[in-house]
Amino acid sequence: MIVVMDEGATEAQIQAVIDRMVEMDFNVHRSTGMVHTVLGGVGPEEEIDPTAFEVLDGVKECHRIMSAYKLANRHFRPAGTIVKVGNVEIGGPRVVIMAGPCSVESRDQILLSAEQVARAGATVIRAGAFKPRSSPYSFQGLGEKGLQMMREAADTHGLLVVSEVMDSSQIPLMLQYVDILQVGARNMQNFNLVRELGKIRKPVLLKRGIAATIDELLLSAEYILSGGNYDVILCERGIRTFETSTRNTMDISAIPTVKKLSHLPILGDPSHGTGRRDRVLPMARAAVAAGADGLLVEVHPDPDRALSDGAQSLRPEQFAELMDQLRIIAPAVGRTI
Amino acid sequence: MIVVMDEGATEAQIQAVIDRMVEMDFNVHRSTGMVHTVLGGVGPEEEIDPTAFEVLDGVKECHRIMSAYKLANRHFRPAGTIVKVGNVEIGGPRVVIMAGPCSVESRDQILLSAEQVARAGATVIRAGAFKPRSSPYSFQGLGEKGLQMMREAADTHGLLVVSEVMDSSQIPLMLQYVDILQVGARNMQNFNLVRELGKIRKPVLLKRGIAATIDELLLSAEYILSGGNYDVILCERGIRTFETSTRNTMDISAIPTVKKLSHLPILGDPSHGTGRRDRVLPMARAAVAAGADGLLVEVHPDPDRALSDGAQSLRPEQFAELMDQLRIIAPAVGRTI
Amino acid sequence: MIVVMDEGATEAQIQAVIDRMVEMDFNVHRSTGMVHTVLGGVGPEEEIDPTAFEVLDGVKECHRIMSAYKLANRHFRPAGTIVKVGNVEIGGPRVVIMAGPCSVESRDQILLSAEQVARAGATVIRAGAFKPRSSPYSFQGLGEKGLQMMREAADTHGLLVVSEVMDSSQIPLMLQYVDILQVGARNMQNFNLVRELGKIRKPVLLKRGIAATIDELLLSAEYILSGGNYDVILCERGIRTFETSTRNTMDISAIPTVKKLSHLPILGDPSHGTGRRDRVLPMARAAVAAGADGLLVEVHPDPDRALSDGAQSLRPEQFAELMDQLRIIAPAVGRTI
Amino acid sequence: MIVVMDEGATEAQIQAVIDRMVEMDFNVHRSTGMVHTVLGGVGPEEEIDPTAFEVLDGVKECHRIMSAYKLANRHFRPAGTIVKVGNVEIGGPRVVIMAGPCSVESRDQILLSAEQVARAGATVIRAGAFKPRSSPYSFQGLGEKGLQMMREAADTHGLLVVSEVMDSSQIPLMLQYVDILQVGARNMQNFNLVRELGKIRKPVLLKRGIAATIDELLLSAEYILSGGNYDVILCERGIRTFETSTRNTMDISAIPTVKKLSHLPILGDPSHGTGRRDRVLPMARAAVAAGADGLLVEVHPDPDRALSDGAQSLRPEQFAELMDQLRIIAPAVGRTI
After folding, report:
1. What percent of chain D has pLDDT over 90?
2. Which residues of A touch C40 (CB under 8 A)?
3. CB distance D245–A257 less than 8 Å?
4. For residue A201, how many other CB atoms are within 10 A of its CB?
């Protein structure tokens, strides 16, 4: 930790800060500059809030040196993590495509979806059985029945299943049906949930919250990792900004940033990232070109009649077109599809 | 619902949109302009996503006319809601002050806190027993023991208790000890939690998420109201913006905006809103001057040694000074403290 | 400057950074920690971009210690600056109210405006003669004729004049008519303009850009101060955030933040800060309660027929009501109106 | 224009709005709904501010139907604009690469830069002679001498020249030396400047401001187009968000959005978009994959010793590597490099 004292900080103020650091078990190195005195502290940094020093009299600013996350840090596994599920490897040389409708709506719909996305080249089917909806009056999902239908559809077409878990009480049920448990953006900082997911031994797909910094995303991953579950997959799905022409602003730069800071694989979700079907292809291509380990894409057999998120779901033929484009792009980043 | 067709939209495109609206049970009124054709629709608006129309060919934009929330709408109770808890009225002529430490740390600490805030004029004590923390390595709260201590401290000093519930499984426990259940900013869109809180009959204090629009805040309130629990209190506690000199940007304008759109009372939380003790007094005064129905303020007997959020906790004497300032300001908005 | 090396940075990487620092004329102090090596540098900090070090191999992060602004820094004048114009003091015990229409529209309109705002207690009239408009098809102002009318109206009613200068070529003209030259939010980083304003000897009112941090606002002030013009008045007028219920989010916390970092006076502009007449009163009260040195408020004799910004202009009777409320609030912060 | 009246709006309120619309020369169509009365208006929409209606009593919201920009609208030239400069076509099948150092620093530096970027495949050299810098103490550029050097370097290596104009007074000088005049992000809403650029007959490269919506970008383009200069090239270069791990958040989705709304070509600037050399390659690839008509990239012979923006400048060998990657990606979007 580094504390920079104000220009004109008094000796008494400096000493008070040193005393406080010592009391908190920091070893202190004082460097008295012409303008600013700087105090370096070695100690229990992960427990302190830099602002707690910044509000002390005579302090200009305080910086934490150690990353707040350890197990999610690139240094923990410099070679990078490959999450293996069945015969799919996420984080390896192949870009993994997870596709499917927003919600499971019926047996026929999910069976047809599975067939369509499998044929185009997806290896994982995505769909929701429990839906977090902004309004209490919107369709809330089919629940366990939906999970059963999705499992059947996936097995029929040789796919894996990823689906969202909304509450820690749903974990046992989810474990019966899905291969990857997804944590939605709104639950990224539901700490009860992520702590519980640290105790299971199935991969977790953790989506970035719409107002979460990358550091906060990695801290939420740390909750899961510190429980002993090392199979965490991250996902960029758009952040909230002032721009309103798309629902969210998909932060493509998060992909190389996560690659630098962490060993965990990262996907892009151009469907939620844009909220509009006509922006999904460009942003899906951009995510792969930027180095994403995979994509999460909404595809629906008949998007205009989808019970949720139809506006951002691709038609099956658009998805097939996208896959063709991605096959051209992947070699530019040393990958295959 | 209003759908504006593009300049140059073809008759076939216009007809396809009309067909889609009819299929969704809308009555359609077509107005063919020189440049833009406009389609007005009366029907099940709350179930549609305007973007679903915006991605149709030839559509320029689509606007929902009805508010997505009904029970939270000002029109539902034009006179405004007063939430009564014990002999405290939130939303009435008196500005209600809820104060106390971030976390319950010990019996002595919370007893002393209660004494200090009661003496200065607070009527509700606030403190956390379950703490949502960004890092898994931070202090996570005392749990039920903390709730017991807080109840005792409140009763000793004639205060009510507000404390955060983090998960629906904690509701029965909370109901034994607290008078108002608080939903934290990170859980504003934990829809399982807010739905369950609609089933209880104790007031809920719902904090705005750091990336939530006011419409989304009111939709989350709608989850609670639609369950039959009408005692909802809102709270502005800072949104995330590009500015980094404070932890969040406290959106004071949310106070008059909520007053216009909704009948529910709204508090300001200058502690989380700024993250720094030295900004709390100005922002607390600003919130009351802007018409807030009350404040949620962190006060700690010894903030430098607080186990959480010490940086944003007032010292007891600062809190007393604040109360004196608020007594001057309140009459400017026709209130008392 | 402080450079924190990555966990696992090699000796060669550390040495390369030290060599680079020495080449840039920094004295370097090396502190070799268990995890992170930290390099402290004393030298020409104002000329370096911390990112230039952050992209070097093995570097985790780099912090500048010295503030980038010097003359705008609180330490330059700890007692605070009072800008004197005629018999008005901005930054002194009296809260200064500058009010008037968005644009000068006619001689009658500005004479009536001056009379109305003077009667209610304003001491400075504000209005635009050159208008920056997002659309080339909107009213662009009356130019010099407008300045003449405003001067006459001000003199008739004993007011000072503040008006916006949009381009450095307009400065000589403005100097003939106005007492305070205003730099609009869109021009805050028009460095040619602010540099030229450093050469004049009339006060400059510098508005914060809608995406400018407070550090950037103070750096733009530094351009003016470093030219020798010390009479700079800052103004918070709303920043751009994700919230759309108001045009901008007025960042009231900028007021105490500027007070801490700088000696320059700061005003609040609730008209641009909200964009809606019905939010102006609450936000004007909030700004004064938070410690603003004054307000800039749009008032129009007939806002519904204003040629620009009518939506955010107060009616004269609303302005008088506001002044009465502010007279109650000001004593809470030790001020008068 | 569409005005939606509040639930419970009185007849008198509705009539007052109609009267106001009529007074403003709108033809009004009234549609009286069960809940909301809706007023459609055909008239001088470009001159009205929807908020002016939203603050009237009984009004819920007001939407403008017509786009505020006309000449920049896709409908004005559905086939898209190709800007031709020398033998370079921007907006055509070839992705155009503009590269070079942030600033001209010396004759040798710019000659070497031109040689390096030309060899790798760029067709336009970019560099600044007048530099907008946040701090008055930073390097401000070589001025006319820099322009001369750049012209010579470009001519020697068969390149075109793009460089930034900071003020309308610099236009005549720029016209002597450059092929494309660039408007920087900070000047996007310097309306004096863009209006003057409408009068010249050389292409203008208009960069999006860091807090500008796409609508505002197109409105600034409209200033230039409405002056009769149709050769406008847009550029996405990062917007300001809450995320701090990159200087800006490059909004890749702006590329397909601009393509849909406007006929003007759009470039991506991954150097300013990220502020960090190690993010430039991924984001440059992403921009081309998303459909950008070209790139603006900073390349410096020795970035560690650059006088400005070294942190975001590529080394020449990195630029050559990027060009190789782009040659793989371009066919995925039907383009060549």
Report:
1. 76
2. 31, 38
3. yes
4. 9
Instruction: List the single residue in D241, D256, D291 with the smallest CB-CB distance to A249.
Output: D241
B-chain CB neighbours of C278 within 8 Å are: 256, 260
Distances, alpha carbon D114 to alpha carbons B209, D99, D164, D233, in Å: 50, 8, 17, 22
Whether B213 and chain D come into contact, CB under 8 Å, resolves to no
A42 in contact with chain C, both atoms CB, cutoff 8 A: yes
Q: Are the C-beta atoms of residues A284 and A322 closer than 8 Å to each other?
A: yes
How far apart (Å, rounded) are the C-alpha atoms in residues A147 and A161?
9
Paired tokens of D256:
């397909």
Give C62 to chain B, closest Cα distance, Å.
Answer: 17
CA torsion through residues D144, D146, D149, D155, sign = negative
Q: Which residue in the set B168, B192, B219 is minimally distant from A134, CB to CB?
A: B219
A34:C42 CB<8 A: yes
CA distance D120 to D99: 10
* Residue D331 CB partners (closer than 8 Å, separation 6+): A328
Could you give the ipTM of this predicted complex? 0.93
A·C CB contacts under 8 A: 50
- Select from D246, D257, D278 the Cβ nearest to the Cβ of A246: D257
- Looking only at the bridges linking them, the beta strands covering A2-5 and A37-42 are antiparallel
Please report the beta strands in chain C, taking only residues with DSSP state E, as ranges in sequence order.
2-5, 27-32, 37-42, 59-63, 83-85, 88-90, 96-100, 124-126, 160-164, 180-183, 204-207, 232-236, 266-268, 294-298
Mutation pick from B59, B69, B140, B167 vs chain A, by most beta carbons of A within 10 Å, is B167
Domains along chain D?
2-63 (3.30.70.1140), 74-333 (3.20.20.70)
Question: Is the pLDDT score of C33 beyond 80?
Answer: no
* Residue pairs between chains B and C whose CB atoms are closer than 8 Å: 125
Joined together, the tokens standing for residue D247 give 């200087």
Residues with pLDDT less than 70, chain B: 134
Q: Give the distance from CA D228 to its chain's centroid.
A: 18
Angle at D270 between CA D269 and CA D272, to 5 degrees: 75
Q: What is the pLDDT of residue B52?
A: 86
Q: What is the edge-to-edge ordering of all strands in the sheet holding D59-63?
A: D27-32, D37-42, D2-5, D59-63
pTM for the full predicted model: 0.93
Count of positions (residues) in chain A: 337
| D134/chain C closest Cα distance in angstroms | 6
Cβ proximity of C106 and C149 under 8 Å: yes
Cβ distance of C329 and B289 shorter than 8 Å: yes
For residues D92 and C254, give the distance between their C-alpha atoms in angstroms, rounded to a whole number.
47
pLDDT band at D246 (very low <50, low <70, confident <90, very high): confident
A43 Cβ under 8 Å from any chain B Cβ: no
